[in-house]
Amino acid sequence: MLATALEHPTLVLNRNWTVISVVPVRHALVLVCRDAARFISPETYETHDMSSWAAQAVGADETTIHLVSRVIRVPEVIVLTRYDRMPRREVPFTRRNLYRRDRYTCQYCGGKPGSENLSIDHVIPRSSGGPTGWSNCVLACLSCNVRKANRMPADAGLTLLRKPSRPRWVPQVTLPEGLIKKSWPQFVSDRYWEVELTD
């Protein structure tokens, strides 16, 4: 039971009460013990250190953690005491993310032939020094890719639908189905429901 309770997810808010991540309960406990965070009581929005959290009554139906001298309820939300920024992140350049950015659409003709009939095209060909990255790679259907070959789009009579660029990272919280706590919606807007469970 202890190991299971320590692996439950805890929502982490920055000092401005904006969601920045989700961590296991064991990590949340460490942050509070180090005075880097406070537990939040979702019912009252009160913040607690370890002593005041442990002094709270524990309901019979609540998930608990048994410490050496006491039993405490598993925290669902913590707020950091010093950190007031958003973590700075960049979307990694991967095949999957490129397909998402271009919405499974050929960037020359606008066709959506399915992922098996799309390829990654270098706008400036690699043979001409074109880099592999967000600003030079797009999805192209097989016929547009064959037509363009090893040339610049204009030389092949093709025009890009939009200039390729790095997608903007949006803070999100990604959790496996069923792990979202009842108290979280009051702290999280709908646009956040997709940040990975981190250690």
Ordered list of secondary-structure elements with their pairings:
Blueprint lengths: L1 H5 L2 E5 L5 E6 H9 L3 E5 L4 E3 L1 H5 L9 E3 L4 E3 L3 E4 L14 H7 L16 E5 L14 E5 H7 L51
Parallel strand pairs: 1-7
Antiparallel strand pairs: 1-2, 3-4, 3-7, 5-6, 8-9
Structure write-up:
The chain has 199 residues and is an alpha+beta fold. It has two domains: 2-88 and 170-192, no CATH class; 95-156, DNA Binding (I), subunit A (Orthogonal Bundle), CATH 1.10.30.50. Helices cover 17% and strands 20% of the residues. The chain contains five helices and nine strands. The chain has helices at 2-6, 25-33, 50-54, 95-101, 142-148, and strands at 9-13, 19-24, 37-41, 46-48, 64-66, 71-73, 77-80, 118-122, 137-141. The strands form three sheets. It has a five-stranded mixed β-sheet with strand order 2-1-7-3-4. Strands 5-6 form a two-stranded antiparallel sheet. The protein has a two-stranded antiparallel sheet with strand order 8-9. The longest helix has 9 residues, at 25-33. Mean pLDDT is 84; it is low at 190-199.
Largest sheet: 5 strands, mixed
The N- to C-terminal Cα distance equals 20 Å
**If strands are numbered along the chain, what order do they take across the biggest sheet?**
2-1-7-3-4
* Overall body shape: elongated
Q: What value does the average pLDDT take? A: 84
Computed Rg = 24 Å
List the domain count as a whole number. Answer: 2
| Low-pLDDT residue spans | 190-199
N-to-C order of helices and strands: HEEHEEHEEEHEEH
